[in-house]
Amino acid sequence: MTLCPSSHLLPLSNSPSPPPMAASLTTSSAASRLLLLPSASARAPLHRLSAPHSTNTSLAASSSYAFSPLKCRRYSPLPPRAFSNQRASSMSTVAAASDPAQLKSAREDIKEILNSKFCHPILVRLGWHDAGTYNKSIEEWPRRGGANGSLRFEIELKHAANAGLVNALSLLQPIKEKYSGVTYADLFQLASATAIEEAGGPKIPMKYGRVDVSSAEECPEEGRLPAAGPPSPADHLREVFYRMGLNDKEIVALSGAHTLGRSRPDRSGWGKPETKYTKNGPGAPGGQSWTAEWLKFDNSYFKDIKAQIDEDLLVLPTDAAIFEDPAFKVYAEKYAEDQDAFFKDYAEAHAKLSNLGAKFDPPEGIVLDGVQGEKFVAAKYSSGKKELSDAMKQKIRAEYQAVGGSPDKPLQSNYFLNIIIVIGVLAILTSLLGN
């Protein structure tokens, strides 16, 4: 698995190529062809799902683009022409919370892109790769990695596992310029969740308000993303996803996002050049998909991996591992039989992944549709531990703020009400004692 939807990244082989900014890009380089691989030796991460190409022939290129080696652009988030209408200072300023109204409008623009470019897989992969660098053992932000918008910088884009994601950035950059009140970190996760939903998947309980890193120096080191064909696939998946704080159920559920996309051998090293399912597109033809309907989000991935009777469908070593490893197999079998169960678990896992390592402003985040993860239950936080996690503190703070206070500032006492309560209690005690 690559960090595609879950710990691996979605296929990228059909990702649209950059428009005018292509002038600042240069083709080839071994690393640029490895869609999701963390390293050249790890040949193709699970989530190298190719993002479907646009039917527009002008977007025929692919993820084989790499940035120009010009030193003066070494730390720029994207090629020069991509930001021709944007002030340079905006690239180095740490953004505050995103604006809810602009987030909603940006979501509608993303839907239009999805409908015209068939780029669902690559947008899912973009969000996953930005969040998938999270290391739970590191507390300091942004050194811990995660969903912080760092993937917009060239130094991280050039990581082997991120080859081709410049195409996703070129699709979203016009939206970012249109809605300056939306951070890159939020935009990446908004695009990823919207792509899943628009492909027929479950509603993801997202929250927004992620803060962006301010410079390329804050990007994580290379090597935190998963590979598709490691020597011990199941062990590798656990090593990478456990580091993020995810469990076996979440690993398998996220793997199910491979129901979207296709892989191309000339870009990732995996898959066939063409199959009966991909020879006619949509978008640029070619590549090998995991499922027959590779732009539809359902549980076909689990059914097809289990059956393994169609040679035209792709099965990576990390895909096969979910039905070979005893612990993974329990969930894979369940999802193959019960799509509702898969959708439920996937939505929760995707939302969790999208929040990894993020710093929110406000701390409780911004909810667009009144749907946000699990319901707050005070009893869950009565663990007796001296120190709560940041996530728990944020939930408790949000609950307090809903009634006018916060964990840092206790609610003011209503002395009149307290006196009434004391008098009432004394009256009851007097009555009981008198009887």
TrEMBL record:
Pfam families cross-referenced by the UniProt entry: peroxidase
SUPFAM superfamilies listed in its UniProt record: Heme-dependent peroxidases
UniProt EC number: 1.11.1.11
UniProt entry keywords in alphabetical sequence: Calcium, Chloroplast, Heme, Hydrogen peroxide, Iron, Membrane, Metal-binding, Oxidoreductase, Peroxidase, Plastid, Potassium, Transit peptide, Transmembrane, Transmembrane helix
GO cellular component: chloroplast
Chain spans, region Disordered: 1-24, 260-286
Bias type Low complexity, positions: 1-15
Molecular function terms, GO-annotated: heme binding; L-ascorbate peroxidase activity; metal ion binding
Main location: plastid
Cellular location(s): Plastid, Chloroplast
Reactions catalysed: L-ascorbate + H2O2 = L-dehydroascorbate + 2 H2O
Bias type Basic and acidic residues, positions: 263-277
Tree of life domain: Eukaryota
Cofactor(s) of this protein: heme b
Cross-referenced InterPro entries: Ccp1-like (IPR044831), Haem_peroxidase (IPR002016), Haem_peroxidase_sf (IPR010255), Peroxidase_I (IPR002207), Peroxidases_heam-ligand_BS (IPR019793)
Gene Ontology BP, a term: response to reactive oxygen species
Transmembrane segments: 415-434
Residue span, Plant heme peroxidase family profile domain: 182-374
Protein function: Plays a key role in hydrogen peroxide removal.
Sequence similarity: Belongs to the peroxidase family. Ascorbate peroxidase subfamily.
UniProt name for this protein: L-ascorbate peroxidase
Natural source organism: Linum tenue
